[in-house]
Structure formats: C-alpha cells, structure tokens
Amino acid sequence: MKILSFKLGGHVSFGPKVKKEEAVWDVLAIQNELQVLPSFSSSIVDGIALGFDFVEQIRKLVEAAEKSDRADSFKREFTVIEWLSPIPRTPKNIMCVGKNYDEHAKEMGAEAAPTDLMVFTKSPTAIAADGQTISIHAGLSSKLDYEGELAVVIGKRGKNIPKNLAYDYVFGYTIANDITARDLQEKHKQFFLGKSLDGTCPLGPYLVTKDEIPNPQDLTIVTKVNDEVRQNGSTKDMMFTVESLVSILSQHVTLEPGDVILTGTPAGVGKGMNPPQFLQAGDTVKVSIQGIGTLVNHFE
C-alpha cells in the first residue's frame, strides 16, 4: 500500500493512493461519514503503532467507500491537494547514518569507510514534503548539498532488537533528501546545525508498506539536479543493511512507531564533484527510488 498525507481546504488527512488514478482516498472522511469502524486513528503515527492492523483498517474503509453510492466523493485528486510529508512529525529527531556507502565515504575524503556505525540526527522541524519549495538559506549557507536516501519508518516500539527480527519492527519505507549545509558542518565541527535547517529533510511522496518492498537491499537510487543525473546507486552497496541499522540503533535508543531512519547516501553529492557543485536558487532536485516513486523539491 502507498500511503500519503495531505491537506485540502484546511483539512489534514491521509490515505492510500487510488489504484490507476492520480488521487488519494480520504480515509478520515470515509470513517467520519460512513462510520465503518468502531474507532480509527486520526493521526498516521498513531495508526502506524497498530502495525498491519492499521493497513487492514484502511482497506476496510476503502472497500466501504467503493461499495457506497458516492465513492468519488471520497477521492481527492492530486491536482487539488497540498502534499504533506507522509510522517508530518517524528516522535524524536530523525536518525541518520553517515558514510554508509564506500564510494560516498571516499568522495567525502575518508581514506577508508568507517567500520563502526556513524550516526547523527536532524531536527523534526527540518521535515518537508514532496513538491514543497525549500529555502536556499542564503543568509546562513553557500554550500547547500543534496543526498538522496532510502528512509525506514519504524512501526513498533523496540529495544535491543535482534538482527533477525529487525524487519518485524519496520512499517515501511519512503524517500528522503538529507539536505546538508556543508559550510555549517565545517564551521561547527559537528552535524546537527548543518543538517537541521528548516525544510532540509524532505520525505515522500509515499510511505510504502514493507510488504511491497520485500528486499530493501536491492533498490536503485537516482538523484537528479535540473534533470542531470548526479547519483545513481543501489541499496545493495550499503555497508550496514536495514536490519543491521535497526538492530544496532535499538541497542542505544528505544525505537518508537513513526521514527524515521535515513540509511545513508550513495556517491555523487555536490561536495564530491570536481569542482564542487552546490545547490542554487532555481534548482530542482528529484530523488527516485525503485518501488517508491520520486521526491521532487524546488529551491528558492
């Protein structure tokens, strides 16, 4: 199932993409008008905590709408909605993995890829949506960079999760662009400020449930700047796999439903080019991941 969050006329909702249509089912409207279920979460993060029971609830709502005599009234065309991040706000900081691809580590100047997990975080206020115009932050940075990444969305609370059970705690996947102010990283000698400027964590367009992506270690990642391919990688090249990341992180931090883990970026970032090419006002960045879609943002 491909789930998206949106706003229309001041009404915030979410739902699955309508099959073979450029539209979304407004499941909150379906529940409100048809009263299909005894109760239904009005928050996508609260719903995720129910695991695949949440997916089954959504399916029941869609089936009820389709059987009603006004199914079309519960559909919202993509052309009229404002897309929101599929996870509008995470329970804690977004957890990010650095230098998880060997070639990216090398282009960033490392003589060898790290043997231990490198983790930093981004503020939840950095979250942005597919299609959202993002500030170039000219007053703070002149070296804004892109990083296309697979993002993991946690679906179940867990601590000290064994690697062989890690996928039980995953609800699904989305696309992230881990936008980074390289000069702020250098100035502050750490990652948080350079990674947390407003709008520098676009997520979307969809949250795809894990049943649709049985092997997250075999997905292509392509990032384009103004239609020029900059990154063309595969998640098979991750040094720490999704199940390893979930397991290791859970040894240190209790994972919660709605937590987002950014799994690292392949080679091809602007800083790694010769000469470096950072984002400019007027640029458009597209990050595509097989099985999920394309995340698009314009910079001004």
UniProtKB/TrEMBL annotation:
- The superkingdom listed in its UniProt entry is Bacteria
Indicate whether Repeat appears among the record's keywords: no
The keyword Metal-binding appears for this protein: yes
Q: Which SUPFAM superfamilies match?
A: FAH
Q: Which InterPro entries does this one have? A: Fumarylacetoacetase-like_C, Fumarylacetoacetase_C_sf
Pfam entry (one): FAA_hydrolase
Start and end of every Fumarylacetoacetase-like C-terminal domain? 94-299
Q: Which UniProt keywords apply?
A: Metal-binding
Per the record, the similarity remark reads: Belongs to the FAH family.
What PANTHER family does the record tag this protein with?
ACYLPYRUVASE, ACYLPYRUVASE FAHD1, MITOCHONDRIAL
Q: What is this protein called?
A: Fumarylacetoacetase-like C-terminal domain-containing protein
